[in-house]
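Key result, reporting period 2: structure in, sequence out.
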């Protein structure tokens, strides 16, 4: 891959020129490469990935101009990286529910469930659903971000029998990726 420096003819060029060259702009430099060749038709998996990538680009283009997310992605873009690239990468990675600490939950209003959730960019929300062993709902609500990756859900309802209860944690990030995990008390 060649780089063009201080060339008034190629300065600022981007996109494909004919069937021979592709010009790209990166960190103020014009990068020139040959047009990639595709030797065989795309597989179904490749087609699905292209569609997902297209959705990622649409999300990113919207996110870098939206008031609530534009500044976040701009701040996260390091030298040589565009906010659009950061937003596209964020689209592809769902949050991870790393740790759920149920040791302080005994079914009493005010008990806490501590949850550590990480994401490559930012966790938007963590939702908690508690149901009895028979599946009947006890309560649900949003956890509050305490510090960094720590989210705390404070129980609001007294739950007399917690044996066999199920707790579902639902974490989401800015692009709307969702991770859901279920735990038993």
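The corresponding designed sequence is given below.
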């Amino acid at each position: 891959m060649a780089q063009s420096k201080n060339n008034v003819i190629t300065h600022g060029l981007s996109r494909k020129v004919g069937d021979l060259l592709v010009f790209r702009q990166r960190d103020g430099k014009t990068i020139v490469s040959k047009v990639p060749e595709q030797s065989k038709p795309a597989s179904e998996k490749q087609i699905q990935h292209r569609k997902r990538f297209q959705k990622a680009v649409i999300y990113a283009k919207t996110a870098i101009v939206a008031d609530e997310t534009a500044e976040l992605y701009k701040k996260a873009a390091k030298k040589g990286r565009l906010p659009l690239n950061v937003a596209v990468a964020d689209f592809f990675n769902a949050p991870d529910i790393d740790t759920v600490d149920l040791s302080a939950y005994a079914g009493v209003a005010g008990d806490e469930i501590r949850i550590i959730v990480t994401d490559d960019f930012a966790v938007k929300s963590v939702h908690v659903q508690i149901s009895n062993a028979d599946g009947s709902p006890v309560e649900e609500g949003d956890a509050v971000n305490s510090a960094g990756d720590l989210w705390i859900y404070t129980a609001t309802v007294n739950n007399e029998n917690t044996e066999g209860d199920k707790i579902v944690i639902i974490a989401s990030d800015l692009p709307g990726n969702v991770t859901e995990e279920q735990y038993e008390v």
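The longest helix spans residues 44-63. The chain has two domains: 8-35+42-91, 96-184. This case is discussed further under Risks and Mitigation.
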